[in-house]
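Continuing from the previous page...

OK, I double-checked the sequence for 50S ribosomal protein L27 against my notes and this is the correct one:
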Amino acid sequence: MYPTVQFIHSYWAYLVVLVLFVASINAIIGYASNKEYGATNFRIALFTLIISHIQLLIGIVLYFVAPYFQVLLEKGMGEVMGDSTLRLYIMEHPLMMIIALVLITIGYSKHKSKLTSKPKFKTLAIFYTLGLLVMLSRIPWSAWL
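Thanks. Re-ran it with the corrected sequence; updated structure tokens here:
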């Protein structure tokens, strides 16, 4: 089960990063050029939210079936914190991805309450870009590329 879930999580991550990047750029361009917020912009923001939440669900399953989790159970948190690879996979990556997802979710929720286009784009640009930066900061690049 672990190899299958890891495969799905790894390749879905490419989609998440790509779509989040597109959504961030779309929001920045919309804000900078005073575009009218339309149905396409809404769909991009919503699609980004949905696929990132799906990635979270896949990641939660992966967290509990991964061999790294067994190390945590067997050796404890002290051993995990002493090993940079284990710390990345067990603590840093999951925590930062959850923070990134919280930022994306807050941005999406807050943008819906705005009445005009410029504040909608501004809210999405801020929160989605912050989410993207947080996400990029803790991707395990050695395993990803």
